[in-house]
Amino acid sequence: MTTWSAGVAPGSGGCGELGAEQDRDEAEQGQRQGGWSGDRKGGGGRRRGGEVVRVQDRFDSTIDDLWSALTDPGRLGRWLGEFDGDLRLGGTFKARFFASEWQGTGRIDVCDPPHHLAVTTSDADQAEEHVIEAWLTPDGEGTVVIIEERGMPISLLPAYGAGVQIHLEDLGTHLAGHERGDAQTRWKHLHPAYQALPSTAPEPGRGR
User: Fold this and answer.
1) Which letter, b or e, does each residue of 186-201 get, where b requires 16 or more Cβ atoms within 10 Å of its Cβ?
2) How many CB atoms sit inside 10 A of residue 36's CB?
3) Which of 44-48, 101-105, 132-136, 192-196 has the highest mean pLDDT?
4) Cα–Cα 20 to 30 A to 36, which of 69, 141, 165, 201?
């Protein structure tokens, strides 16, 4: 089994309302930037139904504020992408992500405010489905979030790892009240770093 793992640098809206060496060091250990703080940990590996990328981060925001940033359409439009459709539990939607330029459709499968969210997505030009799942846990005055994405080919694990990190950086920047960074520049730095990371097996079971 081929897997990889690394330390990844990488009131609530609710689902009902969801309408180079330095770069390798960042990928392995994480850094404080963009107003967010994180003991970032991540990994990738194989599970039933495809490969998995898992990232854990800590933000200096309350769990309600972080849940709102992940589920409120107005806030999503400031850091993640554009959403259109029935964005309630069980509903389907179309989306376009800013940083990765991903476009496709999705379905909200789990909505347990403010702790657990799960969405199944499909690329606009592919039939395969991916699952994106998030768990939020209070941690003092901040919140720990675990993001897990499943179903990608193993050859794309580094690409997804870098992409998830960039999305989390954009989330942290939004929480700090700033604008998104240059995703293409970050991608050029991070993707080679993720390709160079060593392989370890992920923990079995769910993300948290």
Assistant:
1) bbeebbebbeebeeee
2) 23
3) 132-136
4) 201
Sheet order of strands, 92-97 included: 4-6, 41-47, 50-59, 142-152, 129-139, 116-123, 103-112, 92-97, 81-85
CA distance 162 to 186: 9
- Domain boundaries along the sequence of the chain: 4-195
More confident site: 37 or 187: 187
Helix axes 157-175, 183-195, angle to 10 degrees: 140
- Alpha helices of the chain — where are they, by DSSP H? 21-29, 63-71, 73-79, 157-175, 183-195
pLDDT band, residue 196 (cuts 50/70/90): confident
| 170 neighbors 80 (Cβ within 8 angstroms) | yes
Q: How far is 164 from 179, CA to CA, in rounded Å?
A: 18
Angle, helix 63-71 to helix 157-175, in steps of 10 degrees: 120
Beta bridge pairs of residue 57 = 145
d(CA 161, CA 181): 17
Who has greater pLDDT, 91 or 11?
A: 91
Which position has the token pair 């989330």? 171
Q: Domain spanning 4-195 has what CATH number?
A: 3.30.530.20
Among the listed residues 108, 126, 104, the one whose alpha carbon sits nearest the alpha carbon of residue 116 = 108
Burial class (CB in 10 A: 0-12, 13-18, 19+), 21: exposed
